[in-house]
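Q&A FORM
Asked by: J.P.
Topic: structure of Fucosyltransferase

PROVIDED:
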Amino acid sequence: MRFYLRRVAVLVLSTVLVLVMVNLYLRESWRALEVDRLFIQDHAEDGVIRHKFHDHITFQNDEEGGSDKKTLNEYTREDRGNKIDSDINIKSQDDFDSVLIQKMLKSPNPYGRNLVRKVWYDPKYDNDRIVAQLGFVPDLAKKNKGSTTKLKKVMVYTGLPGDVPTGQSRLIKDECPVKTCHMTDNRQDAADADAILFMNHISRPWHKKPPNQVWIVFLLESPSHTPSLSGMKDMINWTATYRHDSTIVAPYEVYVPYNASVLSKPLTKNYAAGKTKKVAWFVSNCGARNGRRQYAEELGKYIQVDIYGACGDKRCPRSDKKCFEMLDTDYKFYLSFENSNCRDYITEKFYVNGLGHDVLPITMGAHPDDYKRVAPPHSYINVDDFESPKALAEYLHELDKNDDLYNEYFRWKGTMRTINTYFWCRLCAMVHEAENHHTWYENVDDWWRGQGVCSTGRWKDGSSYLSNSQKGS
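REPLIED BY: S.T.
REPLY: Here is the structure written out as tokens.
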């Protein structure tokens, strides 16, 4: 009898376990943690890449009684209630960089494009909207002067970062224009939260999503190093990534000019003086899929390339300041090579190691147009502009022999600086405006890693940077 009861108990428990597993699978809670490493190209015959980034974003037209649903490529509108309060007096670190920000809000785009003061993404305009979002105060928050505005509950489902405590303290510390948000990572608050933020990985909530709850996916790594989002079809409303077409752009850095009409200055320094070494590269990941290591090794056949770290024969601990001081005093060039060739994927390898030092960065990673969008003018060299590592080396030798030509790449120095983008401030302000802007991604995974987003080689045609003979040598 005992044996029979034991078998029954085991059978019941096994059945329950199987049902739970099937339920989880159907909800795609496990599949959401898988990493899709596929790179898909979408090129026309002329070699120009065709992008379908925005066909997956659906906008609910609720103006004038409308109820039609169209993609952002089919439908755009002027923002409602999103006018920038240019008279706002922002105070925080460096006065919230307010002098720079307010100047930018009133000045023309330094890159020659029409900088529309929008806070929501619009495919008609090619800008990241960061400056506009920094000065954005929703009408409701302005009317209530902040003190009586209803607190919006923002839940970080995957856990609050260490520098963002529960409550409003981070927003108060940063002296955000809109502080009326309560930050939490208590999953018991999920059902009644105004917004849920999924940071770096997806763990789908159990509750049924309320119609007005905003779900946001936050990712800073490239698609080849982030989990699949396939289980979130029609569920994600906003994105917060480094891509400039995200709802809330979260770049590694952003450069803003002191004066939009002055983007170069007369040189007061010879940046080539005293430098006796050619190319440096700090790297620890030797297996990047874009072939950066092989490119660097091939480049080293034609010009001196010193590789520091696990992938080379030179050592210099990251904790040693002298490692980066070498870039200012010894080397003329630095390989700012990303681990993935994906749209807008530009990290500290470019901003900090490259532009942050008196060295000329050589870039590989994002699309050439992406570097043009964010980088100071004439501040870098891109490998896609050269047919081969040998051709690049020949140009580097030319710069090495001609100080005037080399120094032209540093005329931007002193004309701009990086600013704090205050992600949490922007998030809080925009959550207050969410009810007036209804969007969602029909297939956020396709938006994130679909056709044209990443390349295994050259952006023009997807071919390898190296010829077959170079690969085998």
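FOLLOW-UP: The radius of gyration is 25 Å.
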